[in-house]
Design a protein that fits this description.
- Homotetramer.
- This protein is an alpha/beta fold and 216 residues long.
- It has 2 domains: 136 residues, Rossmann fold; 53 residues, no CATH class.
- The chain is built from 6 helices and 11 strands.
- A 6-stranded parallel β-sheet has the order 5-2-6-7-1-8, sandwiched between helices. Strands 10-9-11 form a 3-stranded antiparallel β-sheet. Strands 3-4 form a two-stranded antiparallel sheet.
- Helix 2 runs parallel beside helix 3 and helix 3 runs parallel beside helix 4.
- It is elongated and about 60 Å long.
- The termini are far apart.
- The structure holds zinc ion (ZN).
- Zinc ion binds next to helix 5.
């Protein structure tokens, strides 16, 4: 039975790497995948991982009908055996409904990869809809780590180096350059609640408030 599978995790947990691995394994067996992404770090029309791998993808633009796109492609003789969607948290709920229809009506597996919650610890609408509709949800096992060594479960946004908990849900930043205007960092819940990024921890290293917690 074809499935809609939601692979979820924090930033930095290897989602895109796994997406590329699934793509590699299936294309090596002669299967043809349709890859969608949205706002990838490598730019429009690319699916890239932090490990440096990259492949071509179709930008799942706002308002795009993903089901209609696939029907159109297949009706013109395009071969599509499965679908991969990276950065799925950025999809509109309606687009997630379209992916469920791809599974049910076109009989294709759909593997969606995304972050569940934003920097305010609120669900992204796309991820919420995936949790509601997915046949299966997989929490990625490549666990990101907070600066303290604990498992990182929450995404923090920094602006000019300071952690913020208010603002637009989607602002593209760079986890590799958190000191610039908008950056992101993964933290454990304890340090997310205390707004304690690695930079803040280093700055206040003498405070008992920032003693590292023992990793679980
Ligand atoms: Zn921590």
């Amino acid at each position: 039975m074809p499935e809609l599978v939601f692979f979820s995790g924090t930033m930095d947990c290897g989602k895109s790497t796994l997406a590329l691995q699934i793509e590699h394994n299936r294309s090596a067996r002669g299967l043809q995948g349709m890859i969608f992404t949205r706002d990838d770090r490598a730019g429009e029309g690319k699916l890239s991982s932090r490990l440096g791998l990259v492949t071509d993808a179709v930008e799942a633009a706002e308002g795009m009908d993903l089901y209609g796109y696939l029907v159109d492609r297949m009706s013109k003789g395009g071969k599509v055996d499965y679908v991969i969607v990276d950065e799925a948290q950025f999809l509109a709920p309606r687009q997630v409904d379209q992916l469920a229809r791809v599974v049910d009506d076109l009989g294709l597996d759909v593997f969606a990869f995304g972050i569940t919650t934003d920097f305010r610890t609120k669900l992204f609408p796309g991820s919420q809809r995936l949790i509601e509709l997915a046949d299966r949800i997989e929490t990625l096992q490549v666990e990101a780590m907070c600066w303290c060594g604990a498992r990182a479960t929450h995404n923090a946004r920094t602006v000019g180096g300071e952690m913020v908990v208010e603002g637009e849900q989607v602002v593209v930043g760079d986890v590799n350059r958190p000191a610039e205007e908008v950056g992101y960092e993964v933290l454990c819940r304890r340090h997310h609640r205390r707004r304690m990024t690695s930079a803040a921890a280093h700055a206040g290293a003498l405070s008992p408030d920032v003693l590292p917690v023992t990793p679980a």
